[in-house]
């Protein structure tokens, strides 16, 4: 940097070297793009995972698209996505704003809130499975009958239990994003608002929320698209049951591929999953407006 | 030629993709156990299951490796459900173990069809000692189209109706001999605040034991034989529908413990209900005796555990002595193993398995080995009542039906368990079950 002002200006004009993206691109190509085409190809074949792969035209697609379980899996996924968003977004926004202030007790609480994120999904699921056991879990253990429900066995209840456990695990992550976002907001904005006589609530709605616009978009994209990828936690917690009540699309894909050994149908489900995920991500990015890449801090 | 090359390349690419996907998901599930015996690069590999027989197998392999340092076997353990997924993907990708652990049935057939397991017929023919050590009714489960592809490796596991004698005494009841007696017990136990039956409904496969036995008692072994033979419309047999209705009657009557579909059999929570006296009875595999012996030693030792065969159903065609369950687990030898791995594997099968020490270790753990001539050993065991009972049950059964989820193809088995779960939850009717399952015939 200090050797030649001329070359450093050139770097600034063109942006950092494109080669910086090379390692990531190679991995993306190897582990995302190539498998994606592999899956697309497999969706037109019949394969049980052991024998020959046979080209089979559209039969996997007709099986998948006419199977009522697929429709149900889509519906369950949509419900989980909706409720996860409704539960997680406000909680993590408020917690993020709360923990962004500099008092010591808030910092201590922020560390506590962060703990669930450090645990693996499988561990979280196993722990909750034990806690929610109707005969040996938390309810009977503490003698609290209202906690001794059939949490994971009641088809109507189980969806909300899953939403709760997912929120328990992922709210810390989104809290962290919001905390960072709030800390980026210049203090001068709040000082000016205070001088103008704005109260705390007014400041929140007039400054914090608008300034967090892009943080909200980022966090929401991660929440919505991420709910297409909930697999490990639900797999260990309910395995899609009871019946098909929590058989999410990714779980349905896994069970079709690796339990029922129908790789063709599982691949078709995988393609559907990718298309939905991409469409949702694009849609959410569009909501951010055309100038979405500009920093919201400029001109503040 | 060229076409074949292209096919092969595509296939290996597909396998690599799948293997990558499954290894990620399996790593997330933390499936592999810590235990592993040492071995060199070309030593035979063996994947066993965690649980009751784990220490027995570990001991057997340790003894073999010590005596045969040039033919060592490297042993790893996996949890049941994770193993079933992992081994199939590994075998498909050419990364499978030398010893493939299995249950026989439709899953074994899919390995045979794919040419992944070695034909052991010649080995069995030239080693009559191997053949003669097994109970014939068990041995035949490793035979497909007249050829032997798998040899039994542990104990007979019939499904048994266990009951808690203490709570039966409390309400002054006898173990049920008929379905009507069973139904009559339900309100009595409920009135005493005891769940009549424990059921690990979350694991789904314990549900299946009810359907298997009811269909067997009502219609006899032919009903399922037709289903397994993929005869069109085989699920429409009236015995299936009657069995499903009887299951829903029992659900309606409150026969199963509260929240039974939240109870996991994999964590043994279902048997815990029995020995803690919260439930009076449980229909489960012979293997839970082993874990109860460990987890509830006093309960078993003090003779509080009762066991009977599944009750008869009035007007039923099935022989009351018929049994369902797992005849045994099996070793198949990978056809893709190297010659030295195969040789070591067959040598172990010939002289390392079912040694006196192995058989005794199995019996000590509360299991009945699948071998002949063990009556005196069983009689000398502290668990002789249960062991002799199970041995007699397996030996004298006119028909021993393999667990349906293992006997059917994986696609059928998966659909069957999910739909049966819906029957227990009363989300679908027996008619819906029958028509959904008929649509899976041949898949």
Structure description:
The complex is a heterodimer of chains A (300) and B (443). With 300 residues, chain A is an all-alpha fold. Chain A has a domain at 67-247: MetI-like fold (Orthogonal Bundle). Chain A contains 14 helices and two strands; from the N terminus they run ααββαααααααααααα. Chain A has a two-stranded antiparallel sheet with strand order 1-2. In chain A, a hairpin with a 7-residue loop joins β1 (45-46) and β2 (54-55). In chain A, α4 runs antiparallel to α11, α11 runs antiparallel to α14 and α13 runs antiparallel to α14 (263-287). The longest helix of chain A has 33 residues, at 68-100. Chain A starts with a helix and ends in a 13-residue tail after the last helix. The model of chain A is unreliable at 294-300 (pLDDT under 50). With 443 residues, chain B is an alpha+beta fold. Chain B has two domains: 31-156 and 327-372, Periplasmic binding protein-like II (D-Maltodextrin-Binding Protein, domain 2), CATH 3.40.190.10; 157-325 and 402-438, D-Maltodextrin-Binding Protein, domain 2. In chain B, strands 8, 9, 10, 11, 12 and 14 form a six-stranded mixed sheet that branches. Chain B is globular. At the A-B interface, α2, α6, α12 and α13 of A face α1, α3, α4, α13 and α21 of B.
